[in-house]
Amino acid sequence: FGNTINMDIIKILLIDDHVLFRDGILLLLEGLNAQVEVFEAGSYESAQRIIDEKKTFDLVLLDLGLPGVSYIELLMAIRGRLPESSVVVLSGTCDHHVVEQALHHGARGYITKSSSAKIMLNALQLVISGGIYIPPEILENKMSEVNDLPLCDGLEKLLTPRQCDVLFQLA
Fold first, then answer.
1. Which of 2, 67, 91, 126 qualifies as a cystine partner to 131, CB 3.0-4.6 A?
2. DSSP code of 60?
């Protein structure tokens, strides 16, 4: 799966423009089974200054809704400046297109702000251990899209019903 983060001390950059949300995340991060050092940024500009000063981070928690920059540009800029860091998106949006684009552009996780503390901690633990976290509702939507596809239309002449079923399950 991806890079596993060294668990001695996890260096985290938290980028979100809402102070109250950042404060909540700081409290939540105490629940990780690791020692953490967290640097906070309320804007992309302040994040750039912190990145220039500190150089490396194990984990970046990134709000995609920062003012003044599109979420794709923001994610690409962070990935470009911190290519070795695991980036986890924190967003109020659970649009499957946004999630797919975030993952496509290098995010290792996508956590909706409506998630519980337990889900967020489990998702961060998964990413820290080298995995990728995708919200269950996105996976459910994708499965329903696959279930609605007419996979065997036109293939009935070539495949048996059982082969169509296997093809459907593979898809």
1. 126
2. E
Q: Taking the CB of residue 48, how many other CB atoms lie within 10 A of it?
A: 14
Q: Distance between CA atoms of 125 and 118, rounded to whole angstroms?
A: 11
Q: How far apart are CA 53 and CA 30, in angstroms?
A: 24
pLDDT for residue 154: 59
Q: What average pLDDT does the chain have?
A: 84
pLDDT tens per residue across span 44-53: 999 999 999 9
Q: Which amino acid makes up residue 17? A: D
- Number of Cβ atoms within 10 Å of the Cβ of 37: 12
Tokens 């503390």 correspond to: 117
Written in H, E and C, the secondary structure of the chain is CCCCCCCCEEEEEEECCCHHHHHHHHHHHCCCCCEEEEEEECCHHHHHHHHHHHCCCCEEEEECCCCCCCHHHHHHHHHHHCCCCEEEEEECCCCHHHHHHHHHCCEEEEEECCCCHHHHHHHHHHHHCCCCECCHHHHHHHHHHHHHCCCCCCCCCCCCHHHHHHHHHHC
Rg (CA), the chain: 19
